[in-house]
Specification:
Elements (H helix, E strand, L loop, with lengths): L1 H15 E11 L7 E10 L3 E6 L4 E6 L2 E6 L2 E6 L4 H14 L10 E6 L2 E6 L12 E7 L5 E7 L5 E7 L2
Antiparallel strand pairs: 1-2, 1-11, 2-3, 3-4, 4-5, 5-6, 7-8, 8-9, 9-10, 10-11
């Protein structure tokens, strides 16, 4: 009986955690060559996502309403309850992970391209002190798997994550 219970718990744990390989491309207009690193995407339902690259040195974590981004040793933290752009981003991520329809909002645009959905989140009005000017998430419409996440910064810079495998 203990073995059956342990097997059932292991199966539930495996269903709750999804992992994908990820390639991160960091583009800065001032640099001639993009910085490319690899890592993993881990999703633990219902509200935990971690993108970890460069041996864990760079991370993007959504844990409930808190978003933590560590880049080059610098930690940036925001809470979606106080940051409208991340509130929308959180709602979109949760909908994708749970296989639900994307919530309608003024700052969200969804376009279809073949077997992909491209979700663009652009904050309404002028947003100061935002790390990113927009988020562009591409998902596979059949599997709801993440394909790319591009976070556009100021002055033509961006960070793009490309996801493979499941």
């Amino acid at each position: 009986m203990k073995k059956i219970l342990a097997l059932a718990m292991a199966c539930l744990f495996a269903l709750a955690i999804q992992a994908q390989s990820v390639t991160k491309t960091q583009h800065t207009k001032a640099l001639k060559k993009d910085v490319v690193t690899t890592g993993t995407l881990t999703i633990r339902k219902p509200e935990y996502i971690c993108i970890s690259t460069d041996g864990g040195k760079d991370q993007l974590i959504m844990d409930g309403t808190q978003f933590t981004m560590t880049m080059k040793g610098k930690k940036h933290v925001t809470d979606s309850r106080k940051n409208a752009q991340f509130a929308t981003f959180q709602k979109v991520l949760k909908a994708v992970i749970n296989g639900q329809s994307i919530p309608a909002a003024d700052d969200v645009t969804v376009t279809k391209d073949g077997g992909k959905s491209i979700i663009t989140i652009t904050p309404a009005g002028k947003q100061r002190r935002q790390l990113f000017t927009s988020f562009v998430l591409t998902i596979d419409t059949k599997t709801s798997a993440f394909k790319t996440l591009r976070m556009n910064g100021r002055r033509e810079s961006y960070t793009e994550y490309t996801f493979t495998g499941l």
